[in-house]
Amino acid sequence: HPTLRPPPPSLRYLLTLATHRHPRYLLRILNSFDEIYAISFLLIERYYLKTHGGGFVENFYGLKREKCLSVGEIPRASLGAEKHVREALRLSRGDIWKNLAVMVGIPYLKRKLDEAYEINAPRALLGGNYTRMPTNPTIRQRILHYYRWFLRNVYPSVNAAYYFAVLVFNIAYLFDNSRYHSPFMWLVGTRMRRLGEEDYKAIAALHAPKEGGARGGNLGVMSLFDPRVMGERALGSLKVLLPTSIFALKFLEWWHASDFARQLSKKAAEGIEVPPPIVSGLSTLSTRFGPKPKSSDKAPSSSSPQPSLDSEPDAEIEAKNPPIAAASLLPIFTVPIPPTSTDCPICLSEITTATACQTGFVFCYTCIHKWMEGNTERQEKWMEGRQGKWDDGRGRCAVTGRRVLGGTEGLRRIIV
Fold this sequence. Notes:
There is one protein chain. The strands form 2 sheets. This protein has a 3-stranded antiparallel β-sheet. Helix 3 packs antiparallel against helix 6 (93-123) and helix 6 (93-123) crosses helix 8 (139-174). With 416 residues, the protein is mainly α. The protein has helices at residues 8-21, 23-31, 33-52, 56-60, 83-89, 93-123, 128-131, 139-174, 183-188, 197-207, 221-224, 227-236, 238-257, 259-268, 282-289, 312-319, 365-372, 377-382, and strands at 63-67, 190-194, 354-356, 362-364, 412-413.
């Protein structure tokens, strides 16, 4: 059952919270979360396939994996009766690695392809600058170009065929027309069965204390710290620890999503006067985004010129009280808020394909994407003669100058 395994989003969420507190130590782990998660479950599933004949989740529900013989079908009633039948259907070392590829490798590969498709598909809206092959490309650029082409044109069909094949095998297995519930199980020649009496006896004998042997009664305190003994005990304890941790994760998800937690925290905070927070750079932000002077409350006349990219007042506003970069201590180039909320602060035109930054400001998708990479016309024009004296604002919000976590991946499209 898939819900028994700790879901990656829950673990990623907890790791993200911990990374906010200790980014120096946990940021690399968070960036490599999928790989660490896959390797961890590869070790767990390999141990359970080798010792219990099935994966961790399958063993929890009393299931096992066995080979399908091409010579004929063994009656189900005799599977648990004879010991030699169980040994004949037991997975070999090669079968174990094939099943690990199906259980861990394919889900990991599909998860990475899904993430890459979600990232690259919207970028195709940028046009030829993103979809065409660059001039004099390197080998890496060629591979990246064909990979993006595969994600845009081929992967949607592959993904649909994947789900369709899984559906067909599930329906066939449901009506007892197939021995395999998955197309990948058919490829590796393995199917699911219930654990029999001989299987439970073998599992019990595996965990029973060994008597005699080469070491005899010399097993003492040092044997407890043997890596092999500690590893087997740690993996064996997962049968209790993993269901408990999954229950705790589900409880935390319910707690954060329910109204009960909000009401309880609201009642606990009643009567507590919280002082206003002290924010560094508040004077600068209040100067730029605070209330306007009374003289500016007057409605502009119809003859007043519209703001443009080349206007001198615009440059004066941008150069006045700019935010300062923490690392380089250079002033950051930013743009002012447009007169109306329907205009993009970068191109000063009506917003198309609205995209929100983490600071809450909304831009055109193309404008903010180019701004994050430092390729807009305003940035190039402003930085002429100011190299080394100003920060061009790449990787930052175009209005506040604050760093955007994740770069362009931190941008969010708005569906109106």
